[in-house]
Structure to design on (478 residues):
């Protein structure tokens, strides 16, 4: 399992509403029981990294300060590296990456539009929430790939990327503006449903004989939501 | 001198108007006579690479096909690498990169707005023309830096970046649409003046005792314009 470390500690003193999304059952999921089809799995994961890259690049271009540009541009570089590394894995399997990614483009493009927000801070939280959930998800799902491929894919996806700079920029902004905190809490919450739909579609795309059906794997999503709650907590936002 | 190879050969058969910008005097310029101040030189060069990265990332996000996204995203990665490598050189000199880049931000941001064009093809040609001229220019100017620093900076700037993918996308589009060719020829021509102003400002920023004054180095610009003409020729466009 991937636990995100909370670099600055939780804030137990902050009063919080009951989370709307409650991770009630933290049942341990054995991800190796889920057997994704390597080609569509890699295609979707690669295309999603390209979208994260595009979002991060937009965050760079619209950043209000040079230090923000600097941190975000490094994070954009990581997403781009993940994208190209996954592309390389697709080529290794003897398949043309464009053909493999194309079926995922429409839904992922729509998801990108939905999750990019109304201003720079919503864009940042959109990346933080969606990339946090989906990187963790695809990395866990990679446990069901053939062993060597799975290990390489996990190494690609687990590279520390945007989370540190996004958390830092968002915490500073939230600390300075309580209205922003309220708005971002709502915004973060609203992203969960669409992110889970993308995650679910990854299982649908992989439904091969012997693989788990999407409706059998609800506990997977419970873990994703628990991660999400921890991520929002770390920002002092109510999930 | 940096000559761009023309991968698909010139097109001597294509009728061309007399170039508006005529490289009449190809006097050999000794760039080592120009002695840029390392810190502002690196600051401006680093910030310009960040802008190229932002433009390329925008070209990725708005690309009409997946193969175009693929090639452009790799090129965006190169620009980002150049930016971060130049930042690292600034840090090596014991200076904070943000402080060094900040003075160049307003003019470079304006330049970015001017050169980003009205559609995807103008954006691509804008990057091709301005990055082509300015990478070549800063690389040549680096000859006047202290020897080891100069060699490292040239190696950073000379990495093959966007030109191949930009030329390929533009040639395909121009071949398919003669109206586009006319429009892009005009657009490319209109970019030269602003690009030269940025190049000139690099000398102004570096005016230290003993360095050449901007008004003594007109031949430098003649070379840049000759490069530009070759670049436009390679696309079948009249410079």
């Amino acid at each position: 399992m991937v636990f995100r470390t909370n670099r600055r500690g939780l804030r137990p003193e902050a009063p919080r509403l009951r989370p709307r999304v409650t991770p009630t059952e933290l049942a341990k999921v054995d991800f190796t029981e889920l057997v994704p089809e390597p080609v569509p799995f890699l295609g979707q994961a690669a295309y999603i990294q390209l979208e994260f890259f595009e979002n991060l690049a937009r965050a760079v271009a619209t950043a209000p300060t040079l230090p923000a540009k600097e941190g975000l541009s490094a994070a954009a570089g990581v997403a781009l590296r993940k994208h190209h590394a996954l592309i390389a894995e697709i080529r290794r399997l003897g398949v043309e990456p464009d053909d493999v990614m194309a079926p995922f483009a429409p839904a992922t493009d729509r998801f990108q539009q939905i999750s990019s927000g109304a201003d720079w801070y919503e864009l940042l939280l959109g990346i933080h929430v969606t990339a946090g959930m989906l990187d963790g998800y695809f990395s866990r799902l990679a446990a069901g790939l053939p062993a060597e491929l799975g290990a390489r894919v996990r190494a690609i996806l687990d590279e520390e990327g945007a989370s540190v700079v996004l958390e830092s920029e968002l915490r500073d902004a939230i600390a300075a503006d309580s209205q922003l905190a309220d708005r971002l809490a709502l915004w973060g919450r609203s992203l969960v449903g669409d992110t889970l739909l993308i995650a679910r579609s990854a299982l649908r795309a992989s439904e091969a004989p012997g693989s788990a059906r999407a409706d059998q794997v609800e506990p997977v999503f419970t873990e994703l939501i628990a991660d999400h709650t921890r991520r929002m907590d770390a920002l002092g936002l109510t999930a």
